[in-house]
Amino acid sequence: MFDIMVVFPYYKPLLEGLFTTLWVSLLSIFMGFFLGLGLCSLRNAQSSALRGMTRIYISFFRGTPLLVQLAIIFYFLPLIDIFIPSVIAAVMALSMNTGAFQAEILRGGFRGLPKGQLEACWTCGLTQNQTYWHIQLPQVIKMTLPALVNETIDIIKNSALISTIAVVDLMRIAQTYSSTTYRPLEFFMAAGILYLLLTVLVSFIGKKIEYKLSNL
C-alpha cells in the first residue's frame, strides 16, 4: 500500500540531494551562459574554420543525448590519464550541453536587435566592447529571458541523469533509499515533488525578474 509517510525519516538526505541538484544546475547554467556567449560570437567569426567548428560543437551537444555526453566525459578522460571527481564531470557536461542551447538562444536575441543600432553607437563614439556589453547584451538578455529560464528548468530536470555517474544528487538519494526500503514509489514520488517545487520556484523568480526588466 502506498504510504508517503515512509519518506519523512529520510528528509535530511533528500534535502541534501536537492541542494546538490540545485547548485550543480545553477553553476552549470552560469558557466554555460558565458560559453554560449563565446559560441555565439564564434558563429559570426571571420574564419570559416572557426564558424564550422562552432556549428559542429553546437550540433553535437544539441543533437546527442545528455546521458551520452556524461558518459563520454566521465569515462573517456581517465583513458588519457585525466581523473576528475564525478561532480566536476557532471558540471562540465551540463555546462557544455547548456552552452550549446544558450548559444542559439542568444544568437536569436542578437539577430532581433535593430540593424541601425550599431551605426548609432559608433556615431556616439562607443567602442565595439562598450556597445556589446552595455548596449546590445542587456537588450538580448531582456528579450531572451523567458527562453533562458526555460533552459534553466530543463537543466534542473536533466540533472537527474548525473546520478548515473555516482553524483549524490536528489535522484541518487531517491534511488538509494527506494532500494534499501523497497518503497520505490514513495521515494520517486517525493523526488518528483521536490523537482517540481524547484522548477516552479525558478519559474517564479524568472517571471519576477522579467516583470522588473519590462518596467525599466
What would your notes on this structure say?
The chain is flat. It is mainly alpha-helical and 216 residues long. Helix 1 runs antiparallel to helix 6. The chain has a single domain, classed as MetI-like fold. It has eight helices and no strands. It has helices spanning 11-42, 48-63, 66-76, 86-111, 117-123, 128-158, 170-181, 184-214. Keywords: Amino-acid transport, Cell membrane, Membrane, Transmembrane, Transmembrane helix, Transport.
Following the backbone from N to C, one meets helices and strands in this order, namely: HHHHHHHH
Main sheet: strands, sense, barrel: none
Distance between the termini: 54 Å
- What is the CATH C level class, in words? Mainly Alpha
**What proportion strand?**
under 5%
Summing up helix and strand content along with how strands pair, one would put the structural category as mainly alpha
- What's the number of helices? 8
Task: Write down the Rg.
Answer: 21 Å
Task: Return the domain count.
Answer: 1
CATH architecture: Orthogonal Bundle
Low-confidence stretches: none
Return the average pLDDT rounded to an integer: 93
The CATH homologous superfamily name equals MetI-like
